[in-house]
Structure formats: structure tokens, C-alpha cells
């Protein structure tokens, strides 16, 4: 069964450390972490990996209008990582 997760991380961006959020649908928390590492490498430290119980709980003004397909395994926010799903 696939579950959408929201991953909060701290990682470098233009020489500064920023918290970022990533939406991933995966088989488990470990699977979500593995997909994240395929996309972003080891440069980001996980702050949390939480299942999303209700998609209405995510940011409706920024994330929702800019996300990909959260029904398939892979990264759906930010866009541009559709190829990472295996």
C-alpha cells in the first residue's frame, strides 16, 4: 500500500542552510527516505518524515497548485523528480 509522506529537511542552498519540504508517496518511511536520497543525496538532514493523513492539510496556496501526482510512488513536490520512482 502506498502512503504520501511529507519530509522536512535541513540542507544547504546557495551556501546557506534552509529547511525544505518534500512530498513523496512511498511504501514505507524507509522507502520514502530512500527515494529522497536518490533525488537529493546525503546533503540534507531529515528533521521529520510524517505520513499525510489528509491532503487538505498540506499548504493549499503553494504546495497543492505546484505538486505532481501523489497517487503514484515517487516525489510529487517539488516537481522535476518524476523520473525517480524505482
Topology (SSEs and partners):
Elements (H helix, E strand, L loop, with lengths): L2 E11 L2 E11 L2 H12 L4 E7 L22 E4 L9
Antiparallel strand pairs: 1-2, 1-3, 2-4
Account of the 3D structure:
- It is a single chain.
- By secondary structure, the chain is mainly β.
- The chain has a single domain (3-77), classed as Ubiquitin-like (UB roll) (Roll).
- The protein contains 1 helix and 4 strands.
- It has a 4-stranded antiparallel beta sheet with strand order 3-1-2-4.
- Strand 1 (3-13) and strand 2 form a beta hairpin.
- The longest helix is centred in the middle third of the chain and has 12 residues, at 29-40.
- The radius of gyration is 12 Å and the shape is globular.
- The chain starts with a strand and ends in a 9-residue tail after the last strand.
- The model has no long low-confidence stretch (mean pLDDT 88).
Estimate nothing, just give the exact number of structural domains: 1
Catalogue the unreliable spans. Answer: none
Strand content: 35-45%
Number of extended strands: 4
Write the CATH fold name: Ubiquitin-like (UB roll)
Largest sheet: 4 strands, antiparallel
Q: Roughly how many Å is the radius of gyration? A: 12 Å
Shape: globular
Mean pLDDT: 88
The CATH class is Alpha Beta
What is the end-to-end distance? 15 Å
